[in-house]
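Researcher: Structure for this, please.
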Amino acid sequence: MGDRGTQPTIGSWVSYGLGSLNEQLPKFIVMGNSIGGCCGGEFGHGASYLGPQHAGVKLSSDPKNPLPFVKPHANGVTAEEQAAELDLIGKLNRAAGVEYPDDPQLRARIRSYELAAGMQTAVPELMQLDQETARTQKMYGLDEEHSREFGTQCLAARRMVEKGVRFVQLYHGAGSAGTWDAHSDIKNKYDIETPKVDKPIAGLLKDLKQRGLLDSTLVVFGTEFGRTPGAQPGGGTTPPGRDHHPQGFTCWLAGGGIKGGVTHGATDELGFYGIEDPHYVTDIHATVLHQLGLDSHELEVPGRKRIDIHRGRPIMEIIA
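Model: Predicted structure, token format:
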């Protein structure tokens, strides 16, 4: 981040570049516990200078309460009273918009009220997962306690794709200390965590494919970084064991015009440095944007100079 401040995330660039397919739903939705304050926190799905209308909107994975802060008809207010209240707010905002036509915060606030009203109807219907067959729910692992939470997110993500949401970002485990961010006893901890995500992810890919959606939906499974191939003594706030390691780690992509069954790049024999087809992390970003019809070098905001290395280049070797 440095002195340039926070930068827009990839989901916000997709929102900015592609626009909306469903005016009742956000273009960019986030589910799960976002990474902690040490690792970006809420900035992990923020929009920075693109404006708050392009930031990720967080939804709860509880199907019975997906919008804890935007409940319809709260505090005994009837639907008619709420509609009248929103209509008045809209009139006042539009009147202010005439006086301040170039205020991006005001435009974003007007849009947020409009979106919130639409979400009160659209989101609860979106999260009615009991409309899915028992077979589908089982495919995502909703019948097993250990995989139910992330399975709910994955099944909801598929329904969001069907409803025209542009970008869905799912987090797993970030809110529970010591889950994926393990420095010692890694194999045991990962043996506990991987069953929580394996079945839901497999179910999502299978479901997208059988519904004819995988070709037009890009699934990206990423991580913050890898682990050092050897143990370290630790120090400061870092515990002893295998430390954070950005020089060599893995992510995978599926669907969305990506070649299947292809491995690209390799580390040295210790897993320390990337030595074969190395890539900067924003090459992955550029690849995602490319597959969605966007060019990272063409996404510009007047008055904002972007550094070329931050734009990356599409990894053409993995594109079908």
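Researcher: Any notable elements?
Model: The chain is about 35% helix and 10% strand. The mean pLDDT is 84.
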